Amino acid sequence: MIRQAAMAVALLATWPAAAQTDDMANPAFLWVEEGKALWSERPRPGAKSCADCHGAAETAMRGVAARHPAFDAKRGRAMLLTQRLDACRVEHQGETPFEPESRRQLGLAAYIALQSRGLPVAIAADGPLAKTVAEGRALYTRRIGQLDLSCAQCHDDLVGRRLAATAIPSGHVNAYPVYRSDWLGMGSFWRRLGNCTTGVRAEAFAPHSPEHVALESYLAARGNDLPMQAPGFRN
Amino acid sequence: MIGKAQLFTLCLAALMATAAAGQEAVARYRIENGAIAASLTGVPGDAARGRAIVVNRQTGLCLLCHAGPFPEERFQGTVGPDLRGVGSRLSAGEIRLRLVDSSAVNPATVMPPYHRIDGLERVAPAWRGKPAFDAQQIEDVVALLAGLKAP
Questions:
Q1: B4-146 maps to which CATH number?
Q2: What is the least distance, in Å, from the CA of A59 to any CA of chain B?
């Protein structure tokens, strides 16, 4: 733990700004290594690994993260990439879902997302996912919390203005999960969402809750055609 | 069986308790001509306490969005107008209303309501039913801002 944090700090000290384009400097790649190992690891003797079913991630997972969240016809609902991972773990591996924000979950999600690097975000927002995207948009524009602010007020109307030291970003999710230096670790969009809801003193959304799924679906669709950058890096 | 008089006393007590609880949370005020002219507490605000509130990143949050004449404070915000000279642009009553509930002036405002609890959704449990500032904190901040005159 400590060694890793020290390593991250050392890396950050060398190339803080360039890290988004310089993977060598992005500590997220420590998580990616873990995800890569997990891809071909059999959870128990006799159980199947991801690779046993899907083959090489480089080909099988190319484009998958770029089109998630996606509507799952079999289950009749929208699914995040991390929910897809859980479904495979439970149904095909006989394991329990990943602990939200665990190293293994983030590592595998980051490794899979990496296979979509540079591809345009391609959410099928007009099809059966449209309802979830619309719900997400409604949440995005709703004022919440003691500070009575909506996501849209900051991420549509005030982009680039400074909230203290921080320039307000446009709120895209094409780089998630990201490594953040003030987390000294990785996090998914859900962790970032928690920071924003805490900021406006609003009640948090539970991981994989319908609200989380709807917001992530809307934000992903709103970023259609942007290049996939996950796993990203944030100061 | 409770007698009529007893019932009446009980109801009155309940009413008074509700009023007291309400008063504790949010003061009563009247908006006239885009301002709340009267003090919320009747106790004069203290500008030094107001300054401590404004520069505090956890309580005030003001400098997340605003810059102002607080030279020791790094990283001031650019979301709202600079607070320098605000006491010359606005009266104390106008400043009071903007702190209490800026949405009464501009429904689309970004400025949080510091002394309103109605109409808020999904407030975190720790803050539920409480305004961001109590009435005296509003008065303290008004005292500070009303004194920020343009040179």
A1: 1.10.760.10
A2: 43
